[in-house]
Design brief:
By secondary structure, the protein is α/β, with parallel strands linked by helices. 26% of the residues lie in helices and 26% in strands. The protein folds into 2 domains: 191 residues, Medium-chain alcohol dehydrogenases, catalytic domain (Quinone Oxidoreductase, Chain A, domain 1); 137 residues, NAD(P)-binding Rossmann-like Domain (Rossmann fold, 3-Layer(aba) Sandwich), CATH 3.40.50.720.
Length: 363
């Protein structure tokens, strides 16, 4: 086992501790990746604050990029030195959902559990990644190659926030050109849903947020209109803009009350796409008869229903063409020692995405 530095959560709701931990060598089809960057996702914060439960101690972080530094004996299709992103999408490739092209909901996501404290206490590799660390050991299904033309810090965003937002539009909602869209929440994932709607050819893309500043942000990423969520009836404002409701409504925030009111934006036949994750046990309410009568639907979207081998090359190419904004999503870069400050900044709502840089010298 080798020693690495990692940000460890010992108690929910408390600052992470920078510790020297032990990382096991890759076995089977596992792969070791030396990380260069890891973005901070709100899911990491939700877990670290204890809202979704989980085992402690734990290392969070799941939106990462780096290069392969070791291979398990059964790993295939990879070479040491390959530049890759690391995701939480761990899939066996053979269960019913994987066989149906839905690896994000694999029924048998087996893989390594490589982390331990110096005294031998196991550390939970949260979300199958544990990427608030200098290195990770993950299953080979969790990585996707990236070209030299994209920097690691930018590429890390593809591992979660981008595929979750764009994928919700393209893969889950299967948005058609000319349809009208509402995106509730103009944070990191919401901005990418807006980008996805623009790429898919939506007629109107209406952002809804509590902040005027974020609505301005949303327009920079492709929103045609913005509505303040503080309006007493923001769905009425939508109808003034589109003449009807929306064909697809994307909820990118994990707020139960928002889910309760989101159906008000739907047009007949519209679909509500549930992207944001509320705390465990939280509940929302709606009238099912309204959905039935209007032929509307409600569907969950985990990680944008992404298939890495299909979607990452496409998104990278869009970025290299200048059709997908990634650099603009990064608010600030931080060192691992600054991770608690970066988390606090993320919690403030001011940041699009904060990124931890493990080595200031880019390759």
């Amino acid at each position: 086992m080798q020693q690495i530095r990692a940000a460890v959560c010992f108690e929910f709701g408390k600052p992470l501790a920078i510790e020297t931990v032990y990382l096991a060598a890759p076995t089977g089809r596992a792969i070791e990746v030396t990380l260069k960057a890891c973005a901070i996702c709100h899911s990491d914060i939700t877990y670290a604050d204890g809202h979704w439960g989980g085992t402690l101690p734990a290392v969070y972080g799941h939106e990462a990029a780096g290069y392969i530094s070791a291979l398990g004996p059964d790993a295939t299709g990879q070479t040491i030195g390959d530049r890759v992103i690391v995701t939480l999408i761990r899939s066996c490739g053979t269960c019913p959902t994987c066989s149906a092209g839905k690896p994000v909901i694999c029924e048998r996501p087996m893989g390594p559990a490589p982390l331990a404290l110096p005294d031998g206490t196991p550390i939970e590799q949260a979300m199958y990644c544990g990427a608030f660390a200098e290195k990770v050991v993950v299953d080979q299904s969790q990585i996707a190659p990236i070209p030299d033309a994209i920097d690691f810090d930018v590429a890390s965003l593809l591992s979660c926030g981008v595929i979750t937002g764009v994928g919700a539009v393209v893969n889950t909602a299967r948005l058609q050109a000319g349809e009208d869209v509402v995106v509730i929440g103009a944070g990191g994932v919401g901005l990418n849903a807006i980008q996805g709607a623009a790429i898919a050819g939506a007629r109107r893309i209406v952002a809804v947020d509590l902040s005027e500043e974020k609505l301005t942000d949303a327009k920079a990423f492709g929103a045609t209109d913005g509505i303040l969520a503080t309006d007493p009836a923001p769905w009425d404002r939508l109808r003034e803009i589109t003449g009807r409701g929306a064909d697809a409504v994307f909820v990118s925030v994990g707020v139960p009350a928002v889910y309760s009111t989101a159906p008000n934006y739907l047009a007949p036949g519209g679909r509500l796409v549930m992207v944001g994750m509320p705390p465990t046990g939280a509940a929302s309410s709606f009238e099912p008869g309204n959905f039935a009568a209007a032929c509307q639907s409600m569907v969950g979207s985990k990680m944008g229903n992404t298939v890495l081998a299909r979607d990452i090359p496409w998104l990278v190419d869009l970025y290299l063409q200048g059709r997908l904004k990634l650099d603009e999503l990064i608010s600030r870069r931080w060192s691992l020692d600054q991770i608690n400050e970066a988390i606090a900044d993320t919690k403030s709502g001011a940041a699009r995405r904060n990124v931890i840089i493990f080595d200031q010298n880019k390759e």
